[in-house]
């Protein structure tokens, strides 16, 4: 990068609207699994505040789900979509994805694989049924959802798949054998999906790095510390 290009970056007039536009998701549609849970509802609300249309999924249409749908509609003035789906049922996942794509022919732009389950047992006492449940919901479901909803993202050359793992995916804890295995596997799934989905592997612009610095200084990053987070288009992930 030459001196003149750097000068243009620094000479650009800073404004609040520039930072807001960097975080804007106007015109995008996001699928959030585990929509009825505390984290899922918080993610959906924040995405709606950024301008996203929301598609929520959960195993049933509970009162909490309806409350979350009302919150999202109030924020974005857009009627959210909701689909009941048992994430342990592979056929149900496939049917739901087909329904989503029938409602949104161009495909969704963002998939947040947030739904998860955690059942505490010592390794030797872990029932196979509990193991199967955690692997199905925490790992197989994100794989199937990503597989179904990713192709339109690639066609549009814009998309985001966000897999919510856990610190237990990095560091083992007692009585978390199924959860640990599934969340560690989810990290591996994320890495391999990136490798096959054309990582950019380009140098980041000064503006992209500057926006990330602002994010790290903002309240949104209050609980991030001691992290090495490359902004390299997936280069170090593959």
Automatic annotation (TrEMBL):
One of its GO terms (molecular function) is 3-oxoacyl-[acyl-carrier-protein] reductase (NADPH) activity. It comes from the Eukaryota. InterPro entries: NAD(P)-bd_dom_sf, SDR, SDR_fam. SUPFAM superfamilies: NAD(P)-binding Rossmann-fold domains. Its EC number is 1.1.1.100. It catalyses: a (3R)-hydroxyacyl-[ACP] + NADP(+) = a 3-oxoacyl-[ACP] + NADPH + H(+). Belongs to the short-chain dehydrogenases/reductases (SDR) family. This is 3-oxoacyl-[acyl-carrier-protein] reductase.
């Amino acid at each position: 990068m030459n001196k003149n290009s750097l000068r243009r970056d620094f000479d650009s007039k800073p404004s609040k609207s520039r930072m807001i536009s960097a975080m804007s998701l106007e015109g995008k549609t996001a699928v959030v699994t585990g929509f009825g849970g505390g984290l899922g509802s918080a993610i959906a609300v924040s995405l709606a505040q950024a301008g996203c249309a929301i598609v929520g999924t959960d195993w049933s249409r509970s009162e909490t789900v309806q409350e979350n749908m009302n919150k999202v509609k109030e924020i974005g003035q857009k009627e959210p979509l909701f689909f009941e789906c048992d994430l342990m049922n592979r056929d149900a996942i496939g049917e739901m994805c087909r329904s989503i794509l029938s409602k949104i022919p161009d495909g969704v732009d963002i998939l947040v694989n947030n739904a998860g389950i955690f059942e505490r047992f010592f390794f030797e006492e872990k029932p196979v049924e509990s193991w199967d449940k955690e692997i199905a919901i925490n790992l197989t479901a994100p794989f199937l959802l990503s597989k179904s909803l990713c192709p339109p993202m690639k066609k549009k050359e814009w998309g985001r798949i966000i897999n919510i793992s856990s610190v237990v995916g990095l560091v083992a804890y007692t009585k978390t054998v199924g959860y640990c295995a599934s969340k560690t596997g989810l990290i591996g799934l994320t890495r391999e999906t990136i490798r096959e989905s054309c990582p950019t592997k380009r140098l980041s612009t000064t503006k992209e790095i500057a926006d990330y610095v602002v994010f790290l200084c903002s309240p949104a990053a209050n609980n991030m510390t001691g992290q090495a987070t490359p902004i390299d288009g997936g280069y170090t992930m593959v």
